[in-house]
Here is the input.
Amino acid sequence: MTDEQKNESVPDGKEADKPLEKDGEPISDYDKALALVKRREEATKGENEVLDRKEKLAANSMLGGTSGGAVEPKPEEKVSDTEYADKFMKGEVNPMKEDDISIN
Here is the structure.
């Protein structure tokens, strides 16, 4: 192997064989572990926030009655002219009710 192959550089410009340094001193394993723990805690915090939002969304959809799928309005049933006339004569239908007009 040549020297160029041993000291391959990392994309950020640091060489792979050199230890990471902080203020001119090598970083200890404890500091590395501490940094990893902090990064993991931040990632877990973000995951927990997303999980909380999903739980609230599921609870709201259950309370709203939409958890079983799409809620579609019931279609109005079509009434033929003769059926409508029969209901009108029986008093079951009052087309003038919206205008507060009584036929009695």
